[in-house]
Amino acid sequence: MKNETPKIFYILLIGLAVISGFVYFKWDNFLELGSNLINYKESHPSQMISFDKFLSYLENGDIKKVDLYENAEIVVFDAFGSLGDKLQHIGVKVPIRNSSLILKLREFQIDFTAHPAVTFESAWSILSALLVPVLLLVVFQLFFSEGSNYDFFGNLRKARAKIQLDANTGVSFSDVAGIDEAKQEFEEFVSFLKMPQLFTAVGANPPKGVIIVGPPGTGKTLLAKAIAGEAGVPFISISGSEFVEMFVGIGASRVRDLFETAERNSPCILFIDEIDAIGRQRGTGVGGTNDEREQTLNQILTEMDGFKPTSGIIVIAATNRADVLDSALLRPGRFDRQITVNLPDIYGRIEILKVHSRNKNIDSKTSLKFIAQRTAGFSGADLANILNEAAILTARANLETISIKQIYTAIERIIAGLEGVLLNDSRNKRLVAYHEVGHALAGTLLKNHDDVQKVTLIPRGRAQGLTWFTPDEQPLLTRGQLSSRLIGTLGGRAAEKVIFGKMEITSGASNDFFKVNSLARQMVTRFGMSSLTPMAMDLPQPSIFFGRRLQTRPDCFLDVADQIDMQIIEIVEDGFDKACTILERNRLLLDQLATLLTQIETIDGKDFEKFVSSYTGLPKKTKLQPLS
């Protein structure tokens, strides 16, 4: 039943509107309105005559008094003719607006009265003053009364959560791959939702909430849906940004409505995506003086303390910024656990590719292992995007199956950008060829460097040529591996110097220098791989939170900071000298490979290494040690 507003309320509101109209417009306006109405009636005579006849009456002395209306355009008079006829409230329209009529009236000594123009501005003002409260009353009834079909504020206070009451969410653990450790953690949540008596029998309370932390695209939302699908319970999902509104108190009201919805549908999974939008640390000064986001967070903390562990509600939140969350949100009793979902390794990527290739017509000769090897550091969403891009390329080529060629093209397109137009200038093409071969040759001849995957002169994005390496996915990197990567990165500039001299080096190595500088700094300040004291001396980044203490100086003395810069310069210079030495000793091989690359434009990694091995007579990797 809808709550009906009492009739006395409407009567009081209309009476208040009338009184306010009288007070605001005063009594004079109403008197003016009344006089205008009288003038309007008198200015409309019962009979109209011609102006000539009016002048004859005037000259005969039959008119004693006239009334002028509408700026002397209409004359109303009473006349008593010589024949005894009596004319009352007769009107005449003056054809020409000038002062001749006034002069004639004065000439014949006729008493006349000029009346103001008839206007109804005060009437419209009064009507508008009465109309506005009535309209407000109608709007109040339609939009603001509780239970109305147009309950504006009631709908605004409700949480915009997506409620999937069907137990079958369409996602199960078999659809989630590459994160087996996280799946094992969530199996006990599924057990609690299916058989809560097993936990309550021994006095165990399941966790109230869990936060899934991981980079974007690693399957955090998919994992939450899989839990609901496996347990067969409703899945209620909402984003953290849905709580943020311009109206004060709306966020906290939506939090209350969200948990009330969860209690009505328990047992269920309550999933809050991107919780860092409202769960950031309080007291930071971010968001304005009256921080509505902090009030919303306080309401979440209160609601999570309010429901019992045995209510069957499990709150799952996802974020990729766990470092900015408030400590009160992460304490036991609210979000008891924090599960990290990392980027998949090669075996995880193989399993993810199997899941996303179920509905793809992939060539039987295509090896998912080769694809996984080329996609180190890719997330599950990236892998799904690669297979989709490959399917699009296959459809454009009017092919029936997806081959490894389309997949490799999709990988390169996603990493480096769209394919550009080949260089026609032989000089620039030769410069780029030597630069790219310098990277590949230096990396091939180094002991701990990654294998060459592909060398090409086909432009992609802003790069005029590319050298691809297959990264070694070891959890720990040695100093030799880092040094080899540094030398290989400097191989492009070293080839330019060795072949063309200092005056002909190009700007193509600008991005290489950024990578080298970052790598060398990490070796000195984070990894302790220098002659300085083996400790972390990295300069801290300023915090965006005003509530935290800002550290304005580095973790070392100023003289040590100078030594850090000297160590970085020494490592980079030593790496560049070694890259030049390697290429000078293999100058003939460098020329032959650059000429071959200029002719065929692309050299596969295996063909490149075979060419180097046949020329040097050495195994795949020499015994060169990059740095002492």
Automatic annotation (TrEMBL):
Keywords: ATP-binding, Cell cycle, Cell division, Chloroplast, Hydrolase, Membrane, Metal-binding, Metalloprotease, Nucleotide-binding, Plastid, Protease, Thylakoid, Transmembrane, Transmembrane helix, Zinc
Membrane topology term: Multi-pass membrane protein
Source domain of life: Eukaryota
Record-annotated membrane-spanning stretches: 7-27, 123-144
GO BP annotations, alphabetical order: cell division; proteolysis; PSII associated light-harvesting complex II catabolic process
Gene Ontology CC terms: chloroplast thylakoid membrane
AAA+ ATPase domain: residues covered: 206-345
Residues binding ATP, per UniProt: G214, P215, P216, G217, T218, G219, K220, T221
UniProt keyword Nucleotide-binding present: yes
Active site (record annotation): E436
Alphabetical list of InterPro entries matching this protein: AAA+_ATPase (IPR003593), AAA_lid_3 (IPR041569), ATPase_AAA_core (IPR003959), ATPase_AAA_CS (IPR003960), FtsH (IPR005936), P-loop_NTPase (IPR027417), Pept_M41_FtsH_extracell (IPR011546), Peptidase_M41 (IPR000642)
SMART domains membership: AAA
Function: Acts as a processive, ATP-dependent zinc metallopeptidase.
Family listed: In the C-terminal section; belongs to the peptidase M41 family.
NCBIfam families cross-referenced by the UniProt entry: FtsH_fam (TIGR01241)
Name of protein: ATP-dependent zinc metalloprotease FtsH
Record organism: Laminaria solidungula
Source lineage: Eukaryota, Sar, Stramenopiles, Ochrophyta, PX clade
Gene: ftsH
